[in-house]
Amino acid sequence: MALSILSSLRRLTLNEKIGSSIIARSVSTDSPLYFQVTQFLCAEPLKKKKRLDPAIVRAREEKRKKKLEKQIRRLEKNARQTKPIDECEVPMVLLEPEELKIRQRKIAPLTSAQVDERVRLTKDWTRYRYRQAIGDISIVERLAHSQARALQELRQESEELYQEAIQVDPALLPFSVRGPVVTPPIPDYESPDGEYVDITKKWT
């Protein structure tokens, strides 16, 4: 039995390559028949590139171009919009029809005497404001004329004094401001301790 197995495996051997050295384990003393395995390749044949119709390519380019133009128009439209202010916006609850009916106030119609009184008051106020504006304009013109006449007389007397008179006086209206350098502490303020959720809205 053992001789039959040896005779069938007399030409077989195992060949293992490690680096540049070869380790062979022969089963028989005759000329061995090496079994060698090549490296497997993880690849596949290249797919044949499909040739598209020029009309289809042109249609795709037009579609992509229209999409970009639409996005640009949308960005330009939103660029003119200002950031909303929550404090200045009316809540949607108050804009509902039921809420408007509840909050709507009934105003009594004005009588003819009240209408005439309002018209008379409006006319009186208009006349008063007109006379006040005319008086202010006349005062400014009179002061400007007096100033120009005084400067003209001063220039005839001395050119140096005239040049000094027309210079701007920075100390005419003294104004100095000094604010707090440190924020005053809040009495009985307890600083928050722990995690918190930031709900600040961010606009891009």
Task: Give a written overview of the molecule.
With 204 residues, the protein is mainly α. Among the domains are: 54-84; 110-165. The longest helix has 46 residues, at 112-157. It starts with a helix and ends in a 39-residue tail after the last helix. Strands 2-1-3 form a three-stranded mixed beta sheet, with no helix packed on it. Helix content is 46%, strand content 8%. The chain has helices at residues 2-8, 54-79, 97-103, 112-157, 159-165; strands at residues 12-18, 21-26, 33-35. Helix 4 (112-157) runs antiparallel to helix 5 (159-165).
Report the order of strands and helices.
Answer: HEEEHHHH
User: What is the strand tally?
Assistant: 3
- How many angstroms separate the termini? 87 Å
Q: Largest beta sheet: what is the strand line-up?
A: 2-1-3
* Number of DSSP helical runs: 5
Helicity level, as a percent range?
A: 40-55%
SS-based class? mainly alpha
Q: Please state roughly what percent of the residues sit in beta strands, choosing from under 5%, 5-15%, 15-25%, 25-35%, 35-45% or over 45%.
A: 5-15%
Alpha carbon gyration radius: 50 Å
Low-confidence stretches: 13-24
Q: Oligomeric state of the chains?
A: single chain
Shape: elongated
Mean pLDDT: 78
Major sheet description: 3 strands, mixed
Describe the structure concisely for a colleague.
The chain is mainly alpha-helical.
Label this structure with key terms.
204 residues; mainly alpha
How is the topology of this model organized?
Elements: H1 2-8, E1 12-18, E2 21-26, E3 33-35, H2 54-79, H3 97-103, H4 112-157, H5 159-165
Parallel strand pairs: 1-3
Antiparallel strand pairs: 1-2
